[in-house]
Amino acid sequence: MKLSRWQRLSGHFTTITSHKLKVTGLCFKLGLYKQGILHDLSKYSWVEFSSGVKYYQGHRSPIDAEKENLGYSLGWLHHKGRNKHHWDYWVDKNRDGIFPIKMPYNYLLENVCDRIAACKTYQKDNYSDKSAYEYFINGTDRLYMHPESAIELERLLKIIAENGLDEGFNIIKKEQRTE
Hints:
- 64% of the residues lie in helices and 4% in strands.
- The chain contains ten helices and two strands, in the order αααααββααααα.
- It has helices at 5-29, 33-38, 46-54, 62-70, 74-80, 105-123, 131-138, 141-144, 147-163, 165-175, and strands at 91-94, 97-100.
- α3 packs across α5 (74-80) and α6 (105-123) packs across α9 (147-163).
- The chain starts with a helix and ends with a helix.
- InterPro entries: DUF5662.
- This is Catalase.
């Protein structure tokens, strides 16, 4: 079924706002108040919002559809360059090549919240506390991330997968550190 422009616009706005509010709540549980409030505000910028509306389908990220259509996503390029909770933000280059940089711990924690909220948003009733861990393990992000960041992100997601969200967050809060 082809969606009207209004359905895509209202659907995308509802999806990104719902996702943002989920992440905000999760960040607050970990004491990341500023990050929770500021999380993903760039999604409301013209470049990200307009591509999100154009490629909105309702069951997956419009970024994937834009990449399938164009081979890249202008919305994603804009987004990852402004949001430090994405591992892609922490990639740089010099004359020796392209290399990942270790993510600060507070942004790894926000990434955990982001992944959980994304799974809840798109999987809906099929979500489980193992969803974000399984998505990470079955994906390729860890292959391109800084090795220490990938190991730590996997460990944090596994804590939630094995202990549930509430108890997992309690464990993470007890061991939380600052960098």
